């Protein structure tokens, strides 16, 4: 894949988009300054190697898309996750986890639960779980 074009050259950025995607999709028709700033970040995280493997990035994106209820994002991230080898079982688990996080967030917020108490309790749980893991070794 070609290297990302320089941030100041809109012509080079458009050419890089076309080389990377095969054409310049309509949703990339941003004003020149935004396009020059946005494309390198998108390209890096969508197509280049980063700390998070591509399939995991797309599964994370799908969970977020489900929560913000964006059909464009859902289609994009589900399709990209499949391109990176995500199975139906993984996609179904992501759907559950997306709902699970939102559900418990609603419950805890609805309780107006004290954040300091929550953090302290989490640390206690983590210590207990780590002790159990170490005992199994």
UniProtKB/TrEMBL annotation:
Residues 37-111 form the Carboxymuconolactone decarboxylase-like domain. One of its GO terms (molecular function) is peroxiredoxin activity. Pfam families: CMD. Coiled coil: none annotated. The keyword Oxidoreductase applies. InterPro entries: AhpD-like (IPR029032), AhpD_core (IPR004675), CMD-like (IPR003779). Keywords: Oxidoreductase, Peroxidase. The keyword Oxidoreductase applies. This is Alkylhydroperoxidase. It comes from Haloferax elongans ATCC BAA-1513.
């Amino acid at each position: 894949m070609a290297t990302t074009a320089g941030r100041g050259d809109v012509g080079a950025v458009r050419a890089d988009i076309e080389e990377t995607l095969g054409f310049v999709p309509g949703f990339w028709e941003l004003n020149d300054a935004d396009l020059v700033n946005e494309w390198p970040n998108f390209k890096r995280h969508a197509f280049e190697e980063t700390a998070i493997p591509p399939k995991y990035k797309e599964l994370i994106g799908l969970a977020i898309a489900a929560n913000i209820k964006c059909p464009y994002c859902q289609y994009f991230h589900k399709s990209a996750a499949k391109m990176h080898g995500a199975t139906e079982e993984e996609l179904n688990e992501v759907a559950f986890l997306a709902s699970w996080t939102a559900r418990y967030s609603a419950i805890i917020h609805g309780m107006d639960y004290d954040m300091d108490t929550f953090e302290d309790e989490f640390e206690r749980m983590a210590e207990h779980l780590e002790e159990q893991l170490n005992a199994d070794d």
